[in-house]
Predict the 3D structure of the following.
Amino acid sequence: MLRKLVTLGVLGGALASIAISTAQAQGQFPERPVTLINPLPAGGGVDIAMRGLAKEMQTILGQPVLVESRAGAGGTIAGTYIAQAKPDGYAVGLFQSTQAIPEVYAAFQKPPYTSEQIRPVARYMSLIYGLPSRAGAPWKTMSELVKYIKDNPGKVKWGRTIGVGHPLQLLTYSLLKKENLDVKEVPFKGAADAITALLGGHIDVAFGISVTATEGHVSAGRLSVLAIHNGTRIKSMPEIPTFAELGLDPGVVPIYNTFFVPKDTPEPVVVKLQDAVKRAIETPAIAEYAQKNGFELYYGAEADIRDELKRDREVTTALIEAMQKDKPAQ
């Protein structure tokens, strides 16, 4: 009996020691660099926004915070990487809808993981996307463009900067369907190619381009932006109306950018990451950086994110179902 008690005591002490050691390790997080994973190509608006935050976060965390791009497959390469990463807080993904709830987009691509395998940490920002128009077009405003399209069905060349099924493409689909607009959609591999086509007059308008990418061309008079997809006008371009105030709201939730970690990441580690993101967003440096680079700070705690994901799931599912019904018979 004594031996059994001694054995249990030793085992209990060992377990307690492991628990204390684990708690201490989590309490010391981070002890090495943290990497923020970007699901899109380096050099774009998301990458720029992430690097600004990383600079502030590393001051708060006391360790380097790196940004690494793992682009491809609609962002699910990055999503898979996070879903399968060691749940220790050292790999954190900044995801949009297609990576946050990949199962919703199964009609376009079989998801390699599900939203159940990742956990939201904190929402960071929303990129502002506009509808730029070529110079010399016969319209000057969004309302004039809509009238021109209705008077000239199938004539306007509408650039699309991303593949079918992405939230930005769903925005275009929703707007065209709601307003019964007949345009000639021209697909591009990305915003840079679409901007080149606009500048060359090969297309008339394009959607899925952040205002950051067009601001220089707008200032120089080479392009104009007819409307933006955002809740309010933005300080850097206060003269540009939102789709909603023009009565042209596509009805799709904002293109949020939210940090996620593997689902089994320890609570103390998640809390430290949440605190670091929140404190970084509250710095004057980030506010200035966001205004300069054309994105909106859009902080959200975990509960806010889960509410937004629920709305996103409902709206996006309905749009995808409608799109599938509209597909011509094969």
